[in-house]
Amino acid sequence: MDLGIRGRKAIVNGGSAGMGRSAVLSLAREGVECFVSARGEERLVAACEEIAAETGVKVTPIATDHSTEEGRAKILAACPDPDILVGTCSPPPMTPDYSAITEAQWREAIDISLLSPVAFMRDVLDGMVQRKWGRIVNIATVAAKYPGEIRVLSGATRAALTNYTVAVSKVVAKHNVIINNLLPGMHHSAFVEKQFNERAAAKGITYEEEVAEFSKLWRIAAERFGDCDDVGDMTAMFCSQQANYITGQSLVIDGGATTSTF
């Protein structure tokens, strides 16, 4: 299917690995020129080069911290008039004890997961509205909709982001500017693989066994973790021309771990 976005320009923040990288790959496969930010330059440059080589599309790495004013300015200088904005970031650590979360951890999570995406939206929305075309997708977390102590540091800030984006989506929809959220559960990202390899090593079991135990404990209906490319493809779909009448939605992608009719 042709998604009708060939030749568009996209900013993808946090796009060097995991779901962010998959979003860049899916967009590039559709012919979208991508400007990709991340803090780690080596991994970022490697990812952009690999995607550009595979797709034949220009993919520009921007090594910076998108949660800072300086970082946002650097990204927007490289792509001042994006048609598409995709926001994601490395998730904060799991929080098995809510009382152990420090003020510094809260402030960092708020800066990265809430204030930075809001600032980016504010910076790009006027241009999208004037051009009568825009797509914004925030890759958040299923914990924004289904709270749990283990993900409270991530879920609380992104619940606020989801609330904000849905509210703003109602204002700009008449200008063909479409804003949606993706709420992924457990996927085989670099972050998850690092954490679950450490958990497995502490128990003397394999990564696959630890994933299976977790899937059973948290009642993931698919009995497995997802692939980041699944999230990337849904990102591209939400950026498509076909998504012009879908706005203010928050799609859960969790393999059936949560239960809800809506």
TrEMBL record:
Give the family, as the similarity comment puts it: Belongs to the short-chain dehydrogenases/reductases (SDR) family.
Q: Identify this protein by name.
A: SDR family NAD(P)-dependent oxidoreductase
Q: What is the lineage of its organism?
A: Bacteria, Pseudomonadati, Pseudomonadota, Alphaproteobacteria, Sphingomonadales
Coiled-coil annotation: which residues? none
